[in-house]
Amino acid sequence: MEKEKLHKEPKTKDKEQSPIIEIKDLHKTFGKDNKVLKGVNLTLNKGEDLVVLGRSGSGKSVTIKCIVGLIEPDKGEIKVFNENVLHISKKELNEIRVKIGFLFQSGALYDSMSVRENLAFTLTKHKRDLSPEEIENEVMEALENVGLADAIDKMPSELSGGMRKRIGLARTLILKPEIILYDEPTTGLDTITSREISELILDIKHKQKTSSIIITHDMACAKLTSDRIIVLKDGVIHAEGTYEELEKDEDEWVRSFFE
């Protein structure tokens, strides 16, 4: 528990500061009648780790995919860095996307590329003017940040599930994003590895000064990483608070996540 004390920062917020992400009245329906989001409202403040809980199919992943334009909502407003991303040009959206890291459940590595090539490809795609030496330095720094510098020449098939998550995170970090969206970062991992990933999320927040939205079913991860938690139910925000507050919530359905 000492690690938790070391890395968690005071939960203070400048009331005059605009949220780094602000979502208002977000709706999304798939097909004719599969209404997944029915008016989601949420904010992410600078320097905050926000955990999103909800049953499968409640719209957690759909919400964060809307933020980066992977899914287009039917209705609503999404502001990132005070820009409405639903009403800007593709060029402007891509400029914002570079500042947002997205860690997919699988890690989403290219299986035909080594770890070095996976990271270098992401870097050169967005920063074309770097020299080979600069690219190598950036790759090594990203791998050192996740504790896997010695895996630089491995192929994804040689990595364990936990290592793939870490490499996926290194690839996300290499562009030095201001926001990171984590989609089930500990899914499929054993208890020890899951805690290591959760602690790594805290380390990154501390070192890189990131703001994050963390989608998870893992309550140990939620407890360790969250500054604030929101709970999705039936396409809307059903509850909001700290882990300790929601654990004692009068709503039996909310408390069921913590049992």
From TrEMBL:
Residues 21-259 form the ABC transporter domain. Gene3D superfamilies: P-loop containing nucleotide triphosphate hydrolases. The keyword Transport applies. Keywords: ATP-binding, Nucleotide-binding, Transport. Pfam families: ABC_tran. One of its GO terms (molecular function) is ATP binding. InterPro entries: AAA+_ATPase, ABC_transporter-like_ATP-bd, ABC_transporter-like_CS, P-loop_NTPase. It comes from the Bacteria. This is Phospholipid/cholesterol/gamma-HCH transport system ATP-binding protein. The lineage of its organism: Bacteria, Pseudomonadati, Bacteroidota, Flavobacteriia, Flavobacteriales.
